[in-house]
Amino acid sequence: MTQKRPHAGKPRHADDRPRHAHPGQPGAQPARGHREPARGPKPMADEPRARPERGERGERPERPERGERRGGGHGPAPAPHGAVWLYGTHAVGAALQNPHRRFRRLVITEEAQAALAAECPAPWPVPPEIAPREKIDQILGAKPGSGIVHQGIALLTDQLTAPALQEALKRPGPVLVLDQIFDPRNVGALMRTAQAFGACCVIAQDRNAPEETGALAKAASGALEAIPLLRIVNISRALMALKAAEFWVVGLAGEAPTRLRAESFAGRRVALVLGSEGEGMRRLTRETCDELCSLAMPGGMESLNVSAAGAVSLYELTRTP
Known about the structure:
With about 325 residues, the chain is an alpha/beta fold. It has 9 helices and 10 strands. The chain has helices spanning about 90-95, 115-120, 135-140, 165-170, 185-195, 215-220, 235-245, 285-290, 305-320; strands at about 85, 105-110, 130, 155-160, 175-180, 200-205, 230, 245-250, 270-275, 290-295. It has a 6-stranded parallel sheet, sandwiched between helices. The chain has a 4-stranded mixed sheet with strand order 1-4-2-3, sandwiched between helices. α1 crosses α2 and α5 (about 185-195) packs parallel to α9. The chain is elongated, with a radius of gyration of 30 Å. The N and C termini lie far apart (about 70 Å).
């Protein structure tokens, strides 16, 4: 907050003011019964005096719509607490068909309506707001280099509520556990792979994993609506809970001498653990696994991107020996 600059020289006391100066003269004392108009703090000499923005007739400028950023496009519009902006034909189409979603706004270009209707037949559960592409760019903060490809569609919706672990495990298939994988596009791609190969859920650490975002949903290409994403405070404790539920916990590690093969896990339900790129699994996570396995790569590559490694591993685990 800007502070008043002190006046130069010795300050006057009230009794030092001339009592017979004319009104308006510096230091004049107002006459009895006269009330001077209230004055705000004096602006600094190098600051322009702020004036309210008004139109031609003095009316106040229109307020931006709720959820849109003030200032004419200086960054994306912040989503309300507990909500997220999804974008893209597949991500939005899948979300609109999810009965567990609570919708707030659907902003779409006139040209994109047909593509969304092919993905999710109209009428949609939220009335569409027809808008130019530039407005959607402003809402999402889409600009060259941002990586946001919205295809003319943006949906503001509440974030999903994940089921409890024991409830999620009632679904068939293996479990995919992500140990500190931060990139939302990698997490989204892994969710898409997990859904493709029939996994029952994806588990990530609550504090060291991306939140539900438009980038994650776009990479998941609809899988965010189909497979539960559970956020667990402690990965090691979650692995112990999976063991108690009779899962065999397998950590993927490039240096492990044992190769990941479907035949080795016949008749077992597997929880596959993937570590972050570069660092891999943390020490306690590795020690909690029942065993560590690596992928057979006869071409000699040292490693794969974590989303590619997850796809190969889930394919191997779910193929019929």
